[in-house]
Structure formats: C-alpha cells, structure tokens
C-alpha cells in the first residue's frame, strides 16, 4: 500500500475531489481525517471508507476560520501522533463568465481572497507539525485558469495563479525541514458537477454562451485538450495518492498537470 500508516487531513473532504482522494488514500492504507462545513457529505464519505475496510473520521471545520483549523489539526496530531499528509480541496462558488468591463471588484476579489486565506491557514496549521516531525506532504489544488488567457474567469485565474505561486514558495520555505509541497492542477471534472458550487461556477459561463454546462465541457474536451477528454475523479485521486507517497519523495515545488493536455508544460 502506498500510504500504509500515514495520517492524512483533507479539508473539503465531503466534496467531489476531496471525497475521491480520501477514498483512495484510505484504500492505500492512510488513516483519513475529513473536515468541511457540511456534516452529511463528510459522513457519507466516511461510511464508504469504513465499509471498504478503511479508517476515517469526520469533523465540521470552517477552513476560513483560523482557530477552528488550528484546533482540528491539534486534535488530530494528539490522537494520531502525527500529521503526514494534508490536502486543501475546498471549493467556493464564484462568478465566472462576466467580461472584465462588467465585473465588480467584489466578484473579482472574492475567489482570490478566499482561496488564498484557506490555503494559508490549512498549510500553516499542518506545516507547524510537519516541521517538528521533519517530514510531511502538503497538497494544494489549482485550475488551468492559472495559465491560460480568455474572457470571463479573471477572479478564478488570479486565484489559481496565487495558489500555484504560494505552493512553489512554500516548498522553498519548508523543504529543508523535510516537507514537500505539490499543487494539483486538473481541468474541469464532469463528475464534480454534482457539487453545487461547481455547477454555480460554470452556470454563468454556460448561460452567457447560450449553452448548457454539459455542452460547454464537452466542447472544451474536444477543442482544448490533447487527449480529447477531461480528467476523471479517479484519475486525479490516484495521482494525489502517488504524490503523497514516499515513491514521489523527490517531487516538490511543482504543479502536477492533470489537464489532459489543455495546458502543455
């Protein structure tokens, strides 16, 4: 098993990506601590993991609340003895599809501020423990918006670029202490549309294009990716497990391109 004996904390563990990663982490032997703001979603993932023979616990934690994040990480560290892996898979519904000339400052700034804040808080809370123990892996989550140009996703793109820069710089700060930091950059994942915030993000863009969300994503898959398809939750989760494992011990300060070729690094 890739993650046998590891302790992992996943913020946004009840969401599509967070839940998929949690299930694979647990299958690979990790003890998984899920947190988020919707208990019912977290409990569903925990039930799946336990039914498959894994170990998981859930807690309601607002990943924008510094004290709540710190309290939860402290509790995990006390009970489990360490924190080996952390993933921030939090998602925020935000405006996309509005041209720059019509975009309000509030709609632009919201994803930038929210994603920067939550990634800082969750990384700092686990980073303190990882530095003390001399090892750990921090995973972040970005989008192709960090690297492409176009209309209607300025807030999303700047937020994604900020997460990627944060991850690279943080890797430099923590590397000497044995802590790795890697950002995952999947393209849009059709299966994740079951999550309300994902639908909200794409709804505005689809409406302005006079299309449906499904047609919008199908067009992106055919026109913008080398593989003529978009990534699946399973594919993203499997890569996350490998990167979090000791087999990827030489990898840090980089972005894992999971875009199916919509971005070519």
Automatic annotation (TrEMBL):
Pfam families, per database record:
adh_short_C2
Q: Does the keyword Oxidoreductase apply?
A: yes
Family annotation (InterPro entries): NAD(P)-bd_dom_sf, SDR_fam
Coiled-coil annotated residue ranges, if any: none
This chain belongs to the protein called: NADP-dependent 3-hydroxy acid dehydrogenase YdfG
Q: Which family does it belong to?
A: Belongs to the short-chain dehydrogenases/reductases (SDR) family.
Q: Please name the GO terms that the record assigns under molecular function.
A: oxidoreductase activity
Please name the CDD domains in this protein's record: SDR_c
PANTHER family the UniProt entry points to:
5-KETO-D-GLUCONATE 5-REDUCTASE, SHORT-CHAIN TYPE DEHYDROGENASE_REDUCTASE-RELATED
């Amino acid at each position: 098993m890739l993650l046998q004996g590891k302790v992992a904390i996943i913020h946004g563990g009840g969401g599509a990506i967070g839940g998929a990663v949690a299930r694979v982490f647990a299958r690979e032997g990790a003890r998984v601590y899920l947190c988020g703001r919707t208990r019912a979603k977290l409990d569903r993932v925990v039930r799946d993991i336990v039914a498959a023979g894994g170990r998981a616990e859930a807690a309601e934690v607002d990943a924008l609340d510094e004290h709540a994040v710190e309290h939860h990480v402290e509790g995990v560290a006390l009970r489990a003895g360490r924190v080996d892996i952390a993933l921030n898979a939090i998602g925020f519904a935000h405006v996309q599809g509005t041209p720059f000339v019509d975009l309000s400052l509030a709609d632009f700034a919201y994803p930038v501020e929210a994603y920067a804040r939550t990634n800082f808080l969750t990384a700092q809370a686990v980073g303190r423990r990882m530095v003390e123990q001399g090892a750990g892996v921090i995973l972040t989550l970005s989008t192709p918006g960090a690297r492409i140009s176009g209309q209607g996703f300025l807030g999303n793109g700047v937020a994604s670029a900020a997460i990627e820069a944060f991850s690279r710089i943080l890797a430099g700060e923590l590397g000497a202490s044995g802590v790795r930091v890697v950002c995952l950059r999947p393209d849009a994942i059709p299966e994740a549309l079951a999550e309300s915030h994902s639908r909200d993000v794409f709804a505005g863009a689809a409406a302005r294009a006079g299309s449906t969300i499904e047609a919008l994503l199908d067009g992106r898959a055919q026109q913008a990716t080398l593989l003529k398809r978009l990534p699946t939750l399973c594919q993203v989760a499997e890569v996350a497990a490998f990167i979090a494992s000791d087999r990827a011990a030489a990898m840090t300060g980089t972005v894992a391109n999971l875009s199916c070729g919509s971005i070519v690094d």
